[in-house]
Design goal:
Elements lengths: L2 H18 L5 H20 L2 H6 L5 E9 L4 E7 L1 H20 L8 H20 L3 H22 L4 H30 L4 H10 L6 H18 L8 H8 L2 H26 L1 H27 L4 H20 L4 H32 L10 H4 L1 H15 L5 H16 L1 H26 L5 H6 L5 H19 L5 H16 L8 H7 L1
Antiparallel strand pairs: 1-2
Helix pairs in contact: 1-2, 1-5, 2-4, 2-5, 4-5, 4-11, 4-14, 4-20, 5-6, 6-7, 6-11, 7-9, 7-10, 9-11, 10-13, 11-13, 11-14, 11-21, 12-13, 12-18, 13-14, 13-17, 13-18, 14-16, 14-17, 14-20, 14-21, 16-18, 16-20, 17-18, 17-20
Length: about 500
């Protein structure tokens, strides 16, 4: 049993053990879940060295028969594409436990069981190398989030949870149909074997087959991203979810869609990916601008941050479909950046909600007077979100825009407007909520951060700075894996400069 197998086992076993813990002892359940999630994070750090040294190949690989017929294998492994996404997931889960420590008081046991099962599902998606296994973990990650929103959310939680579930299930049905079609043609679900069969000519798709198969996978992943105009479930889900649900949804679950595009859609269907890139890029740019414009007029803080995610993830899709090394590196790096900065924004908004019990921006004002440290953390996170140099989002957006300019300068020019608009809506939020006169309800209810809340926010602030000033800590493994993806897509080694070379030149 490899370290990766143990990492998958720990949250699943932890969730099952939590089920039998006494529900009348919520303190024990919280401490146990924090221990299990922290243990998973510490073990995930052990993936870094071997995966970095084994760049371009799978590490901690396990490949064994799961079901004889149809031929489904338990095939898992980690490479430069999945490494940091796994660590992002394990890093944020203990933070979600801490952020819910005081806020979740009803059905505490069930909440933490679902949180651990969610970690199990998302890590499984990032390590699965069998298409059917990928689908199983994809569905496993859907169910806990449905209940986290539907049980512990706000007033319209049932509507938001059902909408989230229906959208994602519609995409899942298309993806499963495409997987079955591929299995009937190739006799296997194993992704590396399928790629090898395509490379050697043992498997091929007609132009029509390739288009429809690509479209089925693309719609499933685009719903999860979510890409404009399939984004309408996201503001409702974020607006109604508890803080921990919003953090995991924004920081991890949305990355399942962009990860699927890079891991499956591009390598399996390079021709259709190239053919359909123009309209996909148009949707990505539309999402960047539309998400930013709608965020500007939101009266609700969580919905504002939700629409900012539509805009930021448009950058990720744009970078993927530039088919340039620097653009793809920027897209993967931006997945990580968005997970850190937007996760921190949702946590800080949650801390404000715990104090004021309102998400309406109009109910705040002058928070900086009564909670200077909380306000400082929010301002730093907002500046990271808008792409201030020396903070994390700047590196990802810079690389994506450079890749877009290499593909076609018009793409970079249009997408660049999203950077300007993001500064408008985030700084306007900061101005309205944290500056100006302090209303009496704010003065009475808002207090500054306590040690538990510092433990939530400080690691995220450190990561924003580290990823902004030291991208070379993360980019080499990402670049090597992306180079191989581009070779599969183009049929020849990528000629563009890698993002790690660009970042080093900075």
């Amino acid at each position: 049993m490899s370290l990766l197998d143990i990492l998958l086992l720990i949250p699943a076993a932890g969730a099952l053990i939590a089920l039998v813990l006494p529900k009348d002892n919520p303190g024990l359940i919280r401490k146990f879940t924090l221990f299990v999630s922290t243990l998973a994070f510490l073990l995930s750090l052990g993936l870094i060295g071997p995966t970095g040294a084994n760049a371009g190949r799978y590490s901690f690989e396990t490949n064994t028969v799961w079901i004889e017929y149809p031929a489904i294998r338990y095939h898992v492994g980690v490479d430069g594409l999945s490494l940091w996404l796994i660590i992002l997931s394990t890093f944020l889960t203990p933070i979600c436990v801490l952020v819910s420590w005081k806020h979740i008081e009803d059905r505490v046991k069930e909440f933490h069981v679902f949180l651990l099962f969610l970690l199990f599902g998302v890590v499984g998606v990032f390590v699965a190398l069998d298409l059917f296994l990928f689908f199983v973990f994809w569905e496993v990650s859907l169910v806990p989030m449905y209940f986290l929103i539907g049980i512990w959310g706000h007033d319209r939680r049932i509507y938001a949870a059902v909408k989230f579930f229906l959208y994602t299930m519609a995409g899942s049905a298309l993806m499963l149909t495409a997987m079955i079609w591929i299995y009937n043609r190739a006799g296997t679900f194993d992704l590396p074997l399928l790629l090898d069969m395509l490379r050697t000519g043992q498997l091929s798709f007609t132009a029509s087959e390739g288009f429809w198969l690509f479209l089925a996978f693309f719609i499933a992943f685009a719903i999860k991203v979510p890409l404009f105009p399939l984004h309408t479930w996201l503001p409702d889900a974020h607006g109604e979810a508890p803080t921990a649900g919003s953090v995991m949804l924004a920081s991890v679950l949305l990355k399942l869609g962009t990860y699927g595009l890079v891991r499956i859609s591009l390598p399996l269907f390079p021709g259709p990916a190239h053919d359909n890139a123009p309209w996909i890029i148009a949707l990505a740019i539309a999402g960047i601008i539309y998400g930013a414009l709608v965020a500007m007029v939101q009266p609700n803080m969580k919905r504002l941050v939700a629409y900012s995610s539509v805009s930021h993830l448009g950058f990720v899709v744009l970078g993927i479909f530039t088919f340039t090394q620097v653009g793809l590196d920027g897209a993967v790096y931006q997945m990580l950046n968005h997970g850190i900065s937007t996760g921190a924004l949702f946590i800080l908004v949650g801390l404000l909600y715990e104090r004021r019990h309102s998400l309406e921006i109009a109910d705040y004002g002058g928070v900086g007077t009564v909670a200077p440290w909380l306000s400082s953390a929010f301002v730093i996170t907002s500046l990271a979100s808008v792409g201030l140099p020396l903070l994390n989002n700047f590196v990802g957006e810079f690389l994506v825009l450079q890749g877009a300019a290499q593909a076609r300068f018009l793409y970079a020019a249009l997408a660049g407007t999203g950077v300007i608009l993001s500064a408008v809506y985030m700084l306007w939020l900061v101005q309205r909520a944290f500056y100006g006169p302090t209303p009496e309800p704010v003065r009475h209810h808002i207090t500054d951060m306590n040690p538990r809340e510092w433990a939530l926010v400080l690691p995220l602030l450190v990561m924003m700075v580290w990823m902004g000033v030291g991208p070379q800590s993360f980019l080499p493994a990402i670049s090597e894996q992306n180079r191989q993806v581009l070779e599969l897509v183009s049929g020849s080694p990528a000629q563009q400069k890698s993002a790690q070379e660009v970042a080093h030149a900075r």
